[in-house]
């Protein structure tokens, strides 16, 4: 969305090691410059860091809503750029995550995304890599992942998540660049087979192109 609007967006991957000072620095830079800050996996932060960050974002939101456009931090009155925006993302059911502070709902509209569209995301990556058949390649890769997820037992080392899919896409793109004589579908399936061979002793031939 920010790309379409021609605006700068910083996506910051949060972790339990991030300090209050680090988050405050990001927040200050965002509302002074009028940019967009996406705090990815926000609920990985410590409770103290989360609460402090939410309080700051709430204060900035109130300043924008009242058209006062000033916010005090560390004894300094700072100007709030009305174009600044904040987005928070979370994976609530993962290990090492905390519940969001109760006042989060007062400033954030909750958008639930239960399942990512693997095929659409893979297609965009193939398209950016100038594949001639991005839709066919993404459909094939998504079908392989769906079949694997349905067949194998739900164990941690059988990872068919979005991160794994994107790693496969990038591997397929790399294979295509290294071997331009190979077909796009061929490198897509080969990338998937490379993954499957690391998980299974025997790779079933049904996935062959």
From TrEMBL:
The protein's GO terms of the molecular function aspect are: ATP binding; dynein intermediate chain binding; dynein light intermediate chain binding; minus-end-directed microtubule motor activity
Origin, by domain of life? Eukaryota
One of its GO biological process terms is:
cilium movement involved in cell motility
Q: Where is the Dynein heavy chain hydrolytic ATP-binding dynein motor region domain?
A: 3-198
The record's GO CC annotations read: 9+2 motile cilium; dynein complex
The record's annotation in PANTHER family points to: DYNEIN HEAVY CHAIN FAMILY PROTEIN
Name of protein: Dynein heavy chain hydrolytic ATP-binding dynein motor region domain-containing protein
